[in-house]
Amino acid sequence: MNTNMKIRNIIAGAVLLLGGLVGCSEDFLDRPPLAAIVDANFYKTDDQILAASAPLYNLVWFAYNDKASHGIGDARGGILTSGSYQLENVRFNTTGETPENGASWRAFYNVVAQSNSLINNINQFVGPNVTDRIKNHGIAEGRFMRGLAYSYLVQNWGPVPIITNNTALLQDTTIARNTEESVWQFIIKDFRYAAENLPENAVLNGRLTKWSAEGLLAKMYLTKAGVGGTRSQSDLDSAAYFAKRVIDNSGAELMPEYEDLFKTQNNGNIETLAALQWVYNAAQAGQWGAQNSVQAFLAYGSEITGFGDGWGGDIGASKWMLDMYDDLVFDKRRKASFMFPGDHYPYITQVPAGGSAQQLRVPANGIDGSRNFNTRAWVKKYVVGRPEDNDGKVVQQGTEINTYILRLADVYLTYAEAILDKNPAEALKYVNLVRQRAGVNSLTSVTWQDVFEERIKEFAMEGQAWYEFTKLEYYDPAKAYSILSTQDRGTFRIYADQIPDPTLWEIEIPADDTTPRFFPVNESNFKIPIPSSELARAPNLRKPAVPYDFSAGN
């Protein structure tokens, strides 16, 4: 059995074994639901340790990946526009009742809870036949995922409770939020442990490695650098150090073609440093949550999914997003991220109502005189098509395309930003490597704005844009608020010069368009409010934050 099949089987088997382990909890402070694998009879072999950690690669992240990742990470970040779907996030009116808010909070604390269970159960129940290498590996996987969840929590909600033992919390009514500085220190400690205990080469395809952890550690240091209000040079140096280690030692390479990054057959490609691993038919096997459901909400119609989903016709790139591209034709990232009328995707099958199967040529749904247009630049990224396009491995609300946690292009841009002031020539080199792959001209000099815009284009619809702003807001809030407040998030038309086979497109705002386009952002609405249901269940979350007591251990 090859290693790729082995990890798929372990993940699928672990999902079946876990059953209700990550069932919906009424309160993020509750102890995680218990299942057979958390008792003393389970953690007795290396394979059992790997089976126990496998659900950290999919099931526990489902509620965030499903809709909240693009609702928080992309809509709040200015990538999307919409007439209805995700509108509160698009218009920067995320409230305590916004569905993606509650889903994100609960998902992240579910990751924390299950990571804690894994760490504590390995320490308590591990058998003598488990090697130290795999014991430490399992704990390191738990700490990697816990640190990642806390990085999202602190950037979205500010001070949050640090929890390492959910069982003890059943008797603890004094749980309080911890300061942002404490949370970031905790995150760094988790990723450092992971970097020290994960192997250089994955134990199974898709599993985390030392380079996964060091790459994320670089990103964490880059964001943490601004937490005190000015950027810490020491943290920037640490970000640069770990990023360069990954660049020099991981063996990862940029995929030659950007669009190939988002094809299911390229899961686990040479650019991947860490990714969530999904099982396409898990829902049909009775294990909802181990499949990647995101195509259902992003694809513009059922004719390209093959099922009754494809509910993304009302969302698409914002005008601010499209204005970022150097060229709408030649920047390969545009077509790989967003569909324009007339775009041709030969690897996706389209079956129009009453029609026959054909290669996807994105339809134009309006005509103005002789000009064809659409009112949305529909989402392409993570839309993989029908079963026949993916070896049969697509079901309604289920594909198996991996969700990137970290890829090499991210490490390049992290390194560039970290060394920008000290070594702009070196920073320029890595920014241009990303641009060259995208098919656009190299820059002759580089600024913070260049790196920022490159990140927006490179990672659009990967749930990252919002976290560019949380990073910036730590040390330059006025700039973060200004950029967000001046993003054009209104509607427009995309005109193709000809259908089929357009050679250029024009983006225009109709003269009679009255939709709101700009939404003010300031200190009062930048951070996301803690979900109302959580405040009701845990009133101590209203109390002032306190430093975390690190003497209690992790």
UniProtKB/TrEMBL annotation:
Similarity annotation: Belongs to the SusD family.
Pfam families the record matches: SusD-like_3, SusD_RagB
Localization per Swiss-Prot or TrEMBL: Cell outer membrane
Domain SusD-like N-terminal: residue ranges: 97-222
Chief localisation class: membrane
Keyword rRNA-binding annotated: no
Keyword annotations from UniProtKB, A to Z: Cell outer membrane, Membrane, Signal
Gene Ontology annotations for the cellular component aspect, listed alphabetically: cell outer membrane
Protein name: Starch-binding associating with outer membrane
Residue ranges annotated for the RagB/SusD domain, each copy included: 311-542
Signal peptide: none
Keyword Signal carried by entry: yes
InterPro entries on file: SusD-like_N, SusD_RagB_dom, TPR-like_helical_dom_sf
